[in-house]
Specification:
Elements: H1 2-5, E1 8-10, H2 20-25, H3 27-51, E2 56-58, H4 62-75, H5 81-95, E3 104-108, H6 111-121, H7 131-147, E4 153-157, H8 167-182
Parallel strand pairs: 1-2, 3-4
């Protein structure tokens, strides 16, 4: 998408993240630290985007950590109530200072598709992700998307579209993005 539209990409920091590898080795010990790192990183990205003059596409939003990852870690007993409440309080304060994305694109997939994507990325630290953890995250993502009202939303079904390998699928997705951003059917929330 960034190449097609000429947008600048802000990726999640997985290379320089000082907590990510430790987190996957000991989730309970590092969950709060990791979530605070991501919250800080995404908040800084949003401030940079707001103060810049380029159109930006992010691969993750500030909302995902607060609505999916942190609650999941807390529910699994991997983040204490004290840390979770502290995290949520900071998130709520930060979000009073920002606006939601112009368009949120959610790539929805079944567990086999998600596992395939994780294996394709080949990140060493993701090799220790349990299937139960992945299922819990996927359920939380779907629950969050079903109630997302902060701004425009486009859902892309990754089980039906392979936009990386199939140019026709990418063309269809770009057409739907164009429709959401520029077309007459901006308010149509029909999933892709």
């Amino acid at each position: 998408m960034s190449q097609h539209y000429g947008w600048t990409v802000h990726y999640e920091d997985t290379v320089n993240n000082p907590y990510l590898s430790d987190f996957y080795d000991d989730m309970q010990r590092w969950s709060f630290n990791l979530q605070i790192y991501f919250l800080n990183s995404r908040f800084r990205q949003i401030l940079d985007i707001r103060n810049g003059d380029k159109t930006i596409i992010q691969d993750r939003t500030i909302y995902e950590d607060a609505k999916i990852f942190a609650p999941n870690l807390h529910e699994m007993g991997l983040m204490s109530l004290r840390d979770f409440e502290n995290y949520q309080s900071l998130f709520e304060l930060m979000t009073t200072q920002i606006s939601p994305p112009d368009l949120l694109i959610y790539i929805k997939g079944s567990i086999p598709t998600l596992v395939d994507h994780i294996q394709h990325r080949g990140r060493d630290y993701e090799g220790s992700i349990s299937l139960d953890y992945l299922k819990r995250l996927n359920k939380k993502y779907n629950q969050w998307i079903d109630t997302y009202t902060a701004g425009p939303l486009l859902v892309i079904n990754a089980d039906e579209f392979d936009f990386i390998k199939n140019p026709e699928d990418l063309g269809e997705i770009i057409s739907r993005i164009d429709s959401e951003l520029y077309g007459l059917f901006k308010n149509d929330k029909t999933p892709v």
